[in-house]
Structure formats: structure tokens, C-alpha cells
């Protein structure tokens, strides 16, 4: 498949595909961090955060699949090696073992902020390329993160 098959110009859509692969790399690191937080949460907020982290990593797993499939829809291969994810991601790995519950929330809020920045870049690039499909997909993902950012900030007592 290539972009022409869905009435898009391949050259105009190339920046979108490149950004989608960067986004995919960042999402993989975020996903693994969510899993680590879910597995290693301890303390008085265990029951609340254990469930929330599972909700977030389940959503991230589905999001990752949609991102990769969109890259394929646009005619390019998605990144699929952890080495690429680690080297290309602006989101960095952390050791969640022994990390305090609210420190986990802070780390995830930081990730979500970076992902929202990438989403805003993707919205602009996809609009410029006339790629409404990518634009719609990314907008849905961003809305989910915006809502969960508000919820996690409220949980942590932040403004």
C-alpha cells in the first residue's frame, strides 16, 4: 500500500510518517513505564493506582497498534525494534522498582506532556498534508491523554 491508494501525496505525507514513527517510539517507552508502575506500585494508593495504571497501559497497547497500522496505511514500515524506540524516544526509561506512588504519577504526567506535544506536531503536519485520517486518530489519542492528565493531576493534588 502507498499513500496514493488513499488519495494522499507521498511526499506531502512523508513528514507525517516520520513523526508517527517517532510517536510510536515514545509510546513504546511510555507503555513499558506504565507496565512497570502497575507491577511495582506499593503503598496506601495501591488499589487506586494499580487499576488506573492497568487502564492506561491497556489503552497505550491499543494506541501503539493503531499508530503502527497508520504508518503501514501510509505505505511505510513502522519501527519495531526496542533499540530504535530507545534511541529515538524523547521519553526515557525509569526504574519503577521502589519508586514512590506519587513519583510514578509525576513520571507518567511528564510522559503524557511529551506525548501531547508530539500529538500537536502531528496534528499540524497531518493538516498540512491533507491527511484527515491521521489527524482524526491523533486527536482522539490527545483527548484521552488530556483528560487523564487532568485526573492524575487532581489525584496528586496539583493545579
Automatic annotation (TrEMBL):
Positions of the Ferritin/DPS domain: 18-157
InterPro entries: DPS_DNA-bd, DPS_DNA-bd_CS, Ferritin-like, Ferritin-like_SF, Ferritin_DPS_dom
Superkingdom of origin organism: Bacteria
UniProt GO molecular function: ferric iron binding; oxidoreductase activity, acting on metal ions
Pfam families noted in UniProt: Ferritin (PF00210)
Protein family according to the UniProt entry: Belongs to the Dps family.
Full protein name: DNA starvation/stationary phase protection protein
Source organism of this protein record: Dyadobacter luticola
Amino acid at each position: 500500500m502507498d499513500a496514493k491508494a488513499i488519495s494522499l501525496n507521498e511526499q506531502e505525507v512523508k513528514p507525517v510518517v516520520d513523526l508517527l514513527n517517532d510517536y510510536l517510539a515514545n509510546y513504546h517507552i511510555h507503555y513499558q513505564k506504565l507496565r512497570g508502575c502497575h507491577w511495582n506500585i506499593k503503598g496506601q494508593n495501591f488499589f487506586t493506582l494499580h487499576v488506573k495504571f492497568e487502564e492506561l497501559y491497556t489503552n497505550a497497547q491499543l494506541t501503539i497498534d493503531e499508530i503502527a497500522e497508520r504508518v503501514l496505511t501510509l505505505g511505510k514500515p513502522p519501527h519495531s525494534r526496542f533499540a530504535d524506540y530507545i534511541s529515538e524516544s524523547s521519553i526515557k526509561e525509569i526504574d519503577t522498582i521502589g519508586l514512590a506512588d506519587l513519583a510514578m504519577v509525576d513520571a507518567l504526567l511528564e510522559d503524557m506532556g511529551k506525548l501531547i506535544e508530539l500529538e500537536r506536531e502531528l496534528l499540524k503536519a497531518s493538516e498540512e498534508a491533507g491527511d484527515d485520517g491521521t489527524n482524526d486518530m491523533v486527536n482522539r489519542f490527545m483527548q484521552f491523554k488530556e483528560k487523564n492528565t487532568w485526573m492524575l493531576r487532581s489525584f496528586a493534588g496539583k493545579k
